[in-house]
Automatic annotation (TrEMBL):
Pfam families: DndB (PF14072). NCBIfam families: DGQHR, DNA_S_dndB. Coiled coil: none annotated. This is DNA sulfur modification protein DndB.
Length: 356
């Protein structure tokens, strides 16, 4: 090991596959300086996999800057391309100080987006630089194992389902609204799948939590990070309650006169596509008919919600299956609007050409 200047980190030593690794805490301010992320220096086989998705960075930066007292970033994983020294504490064999030469190449195997977000967040909010992040260091002289490490680390990574993220996300206000509706408003109360974003064939649930969130965003004309007021909550609860009152099939399921399993086989209105289309319909109703939207909704009783309805076959299906594509959502919502006597916009009329 080079005996010159080193980075020194408090660390814990462990062993995996017969090789030592080290868990250390690093101040955020030094993360951009010591961790290499230069695609030109990476092996050719890794460059495509390691290209930064720059669209992800601003959201991560905002998360750090806007929550300086209430954020959490998981550990980075890195390969050190040189020999290191570990000096044990007097009273412990695996706790001590990890010394890494200043000239060592330290390549991030997992966390390149976090690294870039940390760099940009510190430039906006320098006090974040005094915080720490955990780093898992693997020793890989010459960085010969970095390709396989990258593949292994990402092989079994599974993102949580949108519904589970919605259930646990306490910062995004649209998630809070979805949870409120799922717990308090018919037809969602007792009929919402809270964890999965797909409903199993034999499930007694009708809607997913993520589906309620998407449909309610459409209803209120909101973007994912928009703020929601108590008035928005009341408006959404009132709308979905009135829709429930005017869809016989929903009420039959709610009162156990029709099984959810049979309904999902035959009806479009118990799927995410139908719910989203109803949200889109509601956005137009609340804007154009603020005084009498409730009476207009009564026309929903006349809708033939069967998947076999030729209009839904043309508008909501793709290759014989329900499609959640935005075009199909718009075409489905257009049909509902036409049935309720609502004039379509020029943009909606253009999309209508797809079914004529």
């Amino acid at each position: 090991m080079n005996t010159g200047y080193c980075y020194n980190f408090p660390a814990v030593r462990g062993t995996q596959a017969g090789r030592p690794f080290y868990v250390a805490t690093c101040p955020l301010r030094i993360i951009p300086r010591i961790f290499m992320f230069d695609e030109d220096e990476l092996p050719a086989d890794l460059r495509a996999q390691r290209t930064l998705n720059k669209s992800r960075i601003p959201e991560m930066v905002n998360y750090l800057v806007n929550n300086p007292n209430d954020y959490i970033f998981s550990a980075l994983t890195a390969s050190v391309g040189s020999e290191v020294r570990f000096k044990e504490n007097i009273d412990s064999t695996n706790v001590g100080t990890l010394s890494i030469p200043l000239e060592a190449k330290i390549l991030i195997n997992d966390g390149q987006h976090r690294r870039k977000a940390i760099e940009e967040a510190i430039s906006e909010c320098p006090e974040l630089g005094h915080d720490n992040i955990a780093v898992l260091f693997f020793i890989d002289e010459g960085l010969l194992r970095s390709q396989q490490m990258f593949a292994d680390l990402n092989k079994y990574a599974i993102r949580p389902s949108p519904s589970l993220s919605t259930l646990y996300d306490k910062r995004e206000e649209s998630s809070e609204l979805a949870r409120y509706l799922a717990m308090n408003v018919a037809p969602f109360k007792s009929f919402t799948e809270l964890e999965r974003s797909n409903i199993s064939v034999n499930s007694g649930k009708l809607f997913t939590l993520s589906g309620i969130k998407q449909a309610s965003r459409a209803l209120l004309g909101k973007k994912p990070k928009d703020n929601y007021t108590s008035e928005d909550q009341e408006k959404a609860a009132s709308y979905w309650t009135k829709v429930f009152e005017n869809i016989d099939e929903w009420r039959m399921i709610y009162h156990k006169e029709l099984s959810a399993v049979e309904a999902r086989k035959d009806l479009i209105v118990v799927h995410g596509l139908g719910l989203h289309a109803l949200g889109t319909l509601g956005n137009t109703l609340l804007k154009k008919y603020p005084e009498n939207w409730e009476s207009i909704l009564k026309e929903l009783k006349k809708i033939d919600w069967r998947k076999a309805n030729p209009e839904f076959q043309k508008r909501s299906m793709l290759h014989g299956k329900l499609s959640k594509a935005q075009t199909n959502i718009t075409l489905t919502a257009n049909y509902l609007k036409l049935q309720l006597g609502i004039e379509l916009t020029d943009d909606e009329l253009l999309i209508e050409e797809k079914v004529n």
